[in-house]
Design goal:
about 350 residues, elongated, Glucose Permease (Domain IIA)
Amino acid sequence: MKNRLLITLSDVKGSRQLGLSKSSIFKSLLLFIFVLSLLIIYPVWLNWLNTDLHTNNQALLERQQQLVEQTEALEQRHQLLSGELAQESADLALNQQQLGLLFKQVNYQGGDVLADSERFRHLSNQIAFRQMVLQILPNGKPVEYDRVTSSYGNRVHPFKKTRYLHRGIDVDSNIGTPVVATANGVVTSLQNTPGGFGRLIKISHGMGFITYYGHLKTMEVKVNQIVSKGELIGYSGNSGRSTGPHLHYGIRFGERSLDPANFILWTLNNFDQQLEKMKEIPWESLMASMQKLMAITPQPLSPRIATSMENSILTAACTSTVGCQATSSAPAQSPSANQETLRAK
């Protein structure tokens, strides 16, 4: 009985006794403590687990964002490198084209290139000169077009129905198509004549060449503005007296109108062939003048002229400044001489 606990329960029906051993009580107490511990620890463990999962998820999201940014940076780098590669490819193609021209002109079949180095240098200079010519004189398309609607020469006027000389060409172009300068030059005139070419740009180029761009929608340049070959000057339209959207393109040399078709086809590859087709221009003297201009380089002043200019500048300065110092090239004056000079002034 010492190891048992008796519990007596009394009611109207009588008394009952329950006997519990101490070991059973102890086990029940341990079970109660264990269950109570689970009820307390389990929510805490779940909260910790949820916090850990949230932290890991946040870290994954940040890592994902970093990967997205790195991917965008790589794509931008890829686009940049693709652009640079395209430019390098274009430059390489141009160099190969020029090299092909050199090989063709020297009839190079392989072997010792250095033996012909002087000839190659001369031909390289010729190509550089021709590239300069194609920057200064009109060549190439002023606008992208599919066909020529009216050529240069005599034709029937679309409104007056009489024959006259059409001093240019008309090319089909949708309204708003970019129009570019066909050579370096300066804008000398902007006109708007409803009964004529409508909005018209006139550009003066080197060596007496002038180009005209008529029936424009808008003019994007100003008078006296310097433009480069390929630079946007306006947009094609249907202004003035016109039968439909197109660009009128004209070229003059001095006071003489020229057929622009030969100039549009003029490139580095057919340089000489196109010159032969444009016999109305004194190409020999014109090219000789341009070669002289290309050969001009600034020459340094001779020591005598430089000294003379320096002395003139110093003399002018001394007339307005009292007590100016003598130059190192002139002998130094004594103090008494300086005083005499001051008294004279």
